[in-house]
Amino acid sequence: MNTISHLECSHTGERYAAGELHNLSKAGFPLLVRYDLEKLRQGWSRDWINNAPATMWRYAPVLPVTKPPSIVSLGEGMTPMIRAKRLGEQMGASNLWVKDDGVNPTGSFKARGLSCAISMAKELGVTKVAIPSAGNAASALAAYAAAAGMEAHIFMPRDVPQANFIECKSFGAHVTLVDGLISDCAKLVAANAAREGWFDISTLKEPYRIEGKKTMGYEIAEQFHWMLPGAILYPTGGGVGIIGMWKAFEELEALGWVTGKRPKMIAVQVEGCMPVVRAFQAGAERSEFFENASTVASGLRVPKPLGDFLILRAVRESGGTAIAVSDAEALRAGMQLASQEGIFAAPEGAACVAAIPKLLASGALEPDEKIVIYNTGAGLKYLEAYSTRYPREAGGESDKLGGLVTPR
Fold first, then answer.
1. Strands 199-200, 128-132: pairing kind
2. In a domain, 228, yes or no
């Protein structure tokens, strides 16, 4: 059952036909997929979910694919929701949870958006795709393009984490390393897409990555038995996760599946790249380009998100806030999360952990409210960043044991 109605400009409301290839609206803004939710409400219920696949495609009626054979899935979604009891006790948050998307295919939440986007590209006849990426989106695109039999062209900053580069090459993608930021990579994709016949799957420059990301919101609702938490901390680079979750909560309300107040959406950035935080503090509707962006959390190195006005709208409408932490604070918090809860988070997710004490101290969070930290990736993909905290040097456990034991 698919009830997609149309696509809609997120700024002007202008409608576009479904079932056709689209990038941005004529006004230059992201497009949103709209469904006939009233019709869907009559024929789809929460009981249906009980027998659905244990992937994000369990929510297929509110995803845009109309032909099931077009679905390109590697088992993404339905990731763990873990109670962080020990960490919460240390921080003074008695109801703290971690949604761990680091266990997704290719080790990050990007699998959700790219599964949906590549599935729709396949349905609409695309054979070549291109993307600019700070790392994890590139890995996911390369994997799903390989699974779909598509040609993938990837543009990444030269200092991207080694894991991402190796993944992309292994999946058979054409990789170009760029001396610059993701914004510079995006310019190269835009300049060459038409001539090379690539479909541009840049963040928010096509409508379907949002749809994959919104399943994060559906899962949070389902995993809490359709009672939404008090707050969600989300590491915000391009911010599609916040935009997608906010859309999910709107749809869930229309379906009658959830009641009560929506969560406070809290955008977490790093001090080396905090355009959304600055815009929020200034009361602005859009962000300014953040010059000389630099951070070990490569997914947060987005100097100006295309969907900044949608991120800021969700944060403000929810009564949330935007906050930045330092790289050092994020890495320390990542180590704390790992040692206390056994979750090795990406620096992006770790930044949310570092933000908790600050938000509790300011009163933005209450000690007893249900708080969800969204970890977007696996720490194993950021060994270069974490190695600054754990340098290999003399005096380790192997020295105490008289050297490493060589197996026979």
1. parallel
2. yes
